[in-house]
Structures are given as C-alpha cells and as structure tokens.
Amino acid sequence: MVTVAIITGSESDRQIAERAAKVLGDAGIDYELRVLSAHRNPGELDIYISESDARVFIAIAGLAAALPGVIASRTKKPVIGVPVSSKLGGLDALLSIVQMPKGVPVACVGIDNGENAAHLALRILGKP
After folding, report:
1. pLDDT for the residue 32
2. Whole-angstrom Cα distance, residue 62 to residue 64?
3. Mean pLDDT for the chain?
4. Helix, strand, coil shares of the chain as percentages rounded to 5?
5. How far apart, in whole angstroms, are the C-alpha atoms of residue 71 and residue 89?
6. pTM summary value
7. d(Cα 118, Cα 94) in Å, to the nearest integer?
8. Which CA distances in Å does 44 have to 16, 41, 61, 118, 125?
9. Which phi and psi (to 5°) does residue 108 adopt?
10. How far apart are CA 59 and CA 9, in angstroms?
11. Residues 8-55: tens digit of each pLDDT
C-alpha cells in the first residue's frame, strides 16, 4: 500500500518530485514516484490511477500541465498540482492547473514547489 502517489509528466521533473518525496519520507509517509505523461502514456496513466491505493496524488507538470487535471478527472481522491517552470517562467503551467472546470478540483502550489505539495498532502492526511 502507498499513501501518496507522486507522478511527473517527464523525467526532467524528477528533481521537484524528489523534494516532495524527501518531505514525505521525513514524515514517515510511504509514497511512490512514477513518470507518466498524460500525453505520451495516457493508457498507462489511466491504469495506474484506477489501480492505485494512494490516498493523495501529487502531479508535477510543466507547459500545458494537463497531468493534474487528467488525474483529477479520473479519481475522487485529492490531487495536488505542482507547476514546473519550463516556459514563461511556469506561468503557463500554473494557469493550466488552477483553471480546472467545475467538478474537477485540483489544489495548486507554487511553481517548482514540490515541498509545499508534500506539506499539503500531509495536512490532507491529518499528519502533523
């Protein structure tokens, strides 16, 4: 069983994911880190979401940042989006994550702020 699933859209986002993983690990929370793109691996992503026993998803993505919204559209579990600064200083990814349609909520933390995503996941889980 894994409590938090950390998913990045690209291997290049691993550094941000590892910062989130460190916060979770330091708090004694089990997590899993996967690289699954909403664009390049949609079928594999769907299977992972449907089979995951994670209680919270952290989705890290840049550019169009579709990953957090795709995950939120396929689960009722909390999804935290982390925009990545690749183009436009990450503003494009930030706006993509916060502008979800009604019924597809995604929490959003600051650009490249994997640590805050992990801290928010801890609060959702009721961990100090």
Report:
1. 97
2. 6
3. 96
4. 45, 20, 40
5. 24
6. 0.96
7. 17
8. 22, 5, 17, 24, 26
9. -135, 135
10. 8
11. 999 999 999 999 999 999 999 999 999 999 999 999 999 999 999 999
